[in-house]
Amino acid sequence: MTSTAGIPVIRPDDTASISTVRHSHPGDALSSRQRLVYVLILGALTALGPFTIDLYLPAFPVLESELGVSPAAVQLTLTGTMIGFGLGQLIVGPWSDKVGRRMPLILATLVHVLACVGAAMASDIFVLGGFRLLQGFGAAAGGVVAMAMVRDLFGGKPLVKMLSRLALVNGLAPVLAPVIGSQLLLVMDWRGIFWVLAAYGAVVIVAVSLWIVETRPKSARLAAGEKTVLQRFRIVLSDRTFVGIAIVGGMTFTGLFSYLSSSTFLFQGTYGFTAQQYGLLFAANSIGVIIGVQTSSYLMRTVIGPQWILTITTGMMLILGISITVLDLTGAGLWGTVVPLWFFITMCGFSFPCVQVIALNGHGQEAGTAASLLGAVNFGLAGVISPVVGMLGVSTAAPMGAVMSVTSIISIAALWFIVRPSRVPELSA
Question: Which of 118, 166, 111 is CA-nearest to residue 140?
Fold first, then answer.
């Protein structure tokens, strides 16, 4: 162990020596303070993608007016970001298995910073859409490499605890980003939001350069180099449990994102929320994410396996999605939307760490590839499916609730017929 600027880090040679001395995994030897440092830095990396995607959501009506485009055109810039994020993970994840975590992280984040500058200076919706695609591509490294680093260091129930911390950030960031974005709009225009994102990316690069070192041992990199990218993809995709749980995760995230992509038009347009009131709504929903992630993590470590938690949450999400649709169609109004929506988002919080633990626990040797596929499915499906809400209409909550219901049905089917909960191995201590 060494220290940089007073912050403890693990050096590459430490991971090899620690794992052979009374510890099953390198991270088991970290002190509470050292784990906190990793949670903070890797959490910031994980949040980069969701903040890139969602920070400008409150500015959608302004973009629509200033650029003279339709709501669907503005939503397509969001879809482009999601697709770029998904594709970027498919490249960065396997690359990090082969060459290590640090270099891909720094280079991809640099692409993100440059794309943010381009988006801030965009003159029309097409240029903005192109730079948003690049932003998503560059931000992809944060989420996938952070998860891979955690899997490099931990396994079993300690992996649950660390991934729950990242899942908390990953679940909170999409919800908190519009809150922060709405406050930023009080002091700057929509272009300023992209300058803020550029600064965030630059800070991430500095933090990684100073305090994040290689967690992927050289021997593992050499072993990964003996396999092609396609071979590593084949290893992960031949795992029935991984494929099923990736579908569950992708559908859960798509259900959440159907809300994120339509909420600005629904709540600001239909219900007349100001940008700040809209931000407060997101803040209230963030409490649900916190409750879900933390409770789920505790249950996984002490009471019940993650697969059994998912059997409950997927069923509840279906009930809540149907409730949103029915209550809206029967004229229940604002409260008929926001109450079941809060519980739906809470169920998403329960699900996120369960999906990550099941997906990564059995793939320590190809953690980057597994994390990239998981992320690509999440953001790829959300990017493709969530615009359906815009096409169905964003003046009522019924289309959003309908998409949530359909994604929940697919999650339930994937969990019971592909994953098969009784066949998921128990977590090691």
Answer: 111
